[in-house]
Amino acid sequence: MPTVLITGASRGIGLEFAKQYADDGWKVIATCRDPGGANELKGLAGKVEVHALDITDRGQIQALAKSLKRENIDILINNAGIYGPKPALLGGINYGAWEEVMRTDAMSPLKVSECFLDHIARGKMKKIIAISSKMGSISDNSSGGSYIYRSSKAALNAVMKSLSIDLKERGVVVALLHPGWVKTDMGGPGALIDSRESVSKMRDVIAGLGPEQSGGFFGFDGERISW
Ligand SMILES: NC(=O)c1ccc[n+]([C@@H]2O[C@H](COP(=O)([O-])OP(=O)(O)OC[C@H]3O[C@@H](n4cnc5c(N)ncnc54)[C@H](OP(=O)(O)O)[C@@H]3O)[C@@H](O)[C@H]2O)c1
User: Fold this and answer.
1) CA of residue 80 to ligand 1 center, whole Å
2) Which pLDDT does position 88 carry in this prediction?
3) What is the CATH code of the structural domain delimited by 3-219?
4) What is the rounded CA–CA span in Å between residue 55 and residue 46?
5) Atom 7 (ligand 1) nearest CA
6) Percent helix, strand, coil in the chain (nearest 5)?
7) How far apart are CA 119 and CA 155, in angstroms?
8) Which residues make Cβ contacts (< 8 Å) with residue 207, sequence separation at least 6?
9) Quick one: CA dihedral 189, 191, 192, 198, positive or negative?
10) Ligand 1 atom nearest 81 alpha carbon
11) pLDDT tens, 103-148?
């Protein structure tokens, strides 16, 4: 039975990843900041383990990786993320909040990946996924604004591209996925697709990833997105 580790599994896209992999018979190591309040996650059927993890707490990441040192992880999904204050417009930027978004969206996925690298390298599939956003594509930016979120996801893309190169020799595939505009707390009710559709399509993309795709940035439909 394959094993997936998911960050930010309390709600939204992360919760849906946990549900779908569990429904498919996978072992799911679901992490979230507050397991006590994650009732939907704890109520999922299947082989789901819930662990506390705030991805900005480097000590907590290290401790969890150590406590799970016997696990072989097939796929790590770096899903947890924040948008930061809205709107982030010129003249009204909250620089303190920007630091928090950079720490969460760009720096922490690397720390999680570093700490769980041995677990992933022992897994059969050896895949590290980071949930990015088209908002992080510089070539796709035609509307400006959103300085904080755009820069955090552009930085995540740069980080994961380097990771893909550095892990090539270990046979670990690294990819960035844009989930679409999804109806979650972050995406809002006016978004275009629900998390069930987004996650089911991203799971197909993830399943199809091989070494040739490592370091790529893909939409939930599998199309490449330009940087
Ligand atoms: N929804 C969209 O349209 C959309 C589009 C493009 C990209 N994305 C990306 O998709 C990912 C999931 O987004 P979503 O729409 O599901 O957002 P969401 O509904 O706001 O959920 C965000 C999840 O991330 C968790 N999280 C935030 N900061 C964390 C931290 N420091 N440590 C651990 N967990 C943390 C939250 O946990 P708590 O419950 O503890 O707050 C929650 O589980 C994000 O990376 C987001 O940027 C979403």
Assistant:
1) 4
2) 85
3) 3.40.50.720
4) 25
5) 133
6) 45, 15, 40
7) 25
8) none
9) negative
10) 45
11) 999 999 999 999 999 999 999 999 999 999 999 999 999 999 999 9
For ligand 1, atom 25: residue with the closest CA: 8
The CA-atom distances, in angstroms, between 127 and each of 55, 105, 140, 152, 189 are: 19, 19, 26, 22, 31
Asked if 153 is an active-site residue, the reply is: yes
Question: Quick one: tokens of 205?
Answer: 């993309």
Ligand 1 atom closest to residue 16's alpha carbon, by position in its atom list: 16
Q: Is there a contact between 95 and 24 (Cβ–Cβ < 8 Å)? A: no
41 CB-near residues (< 8 Å, 6+ apart): 9, 10, 15, 18, 30, 32, 35, 48, 50
pLDDT in tens, 35-60: 999 999 999 999 999 999 999 999 99
Ordered DSSP codes for 150-175:
HHHHHHHHHHHHHHHHHTGGGT-EEE
Q: What are phi and psi of 86, to 5 degrees?
A: -120, 145
Contact of 148 with 93, CB cutoff 8 Å: yes
Residues flanking ligand 1, CB < 6 Å: 7-8, 10-14, 32-34, 53-56, 79-82, 104, 131, 133, 178-179, 181-182, 184-187, 191
- Ligand 1 centroid distance, CA of 169 (Å): 31
Q: Say how far apart CA 168 and CA 103 lie, in whole Å.
A: 25
Outline where DSSP puts E strands in 133-224: 173-178, 217-219
- Measured in angstroms, how far is the CA atom of residue 25 from the centroid of ligand 1? 24
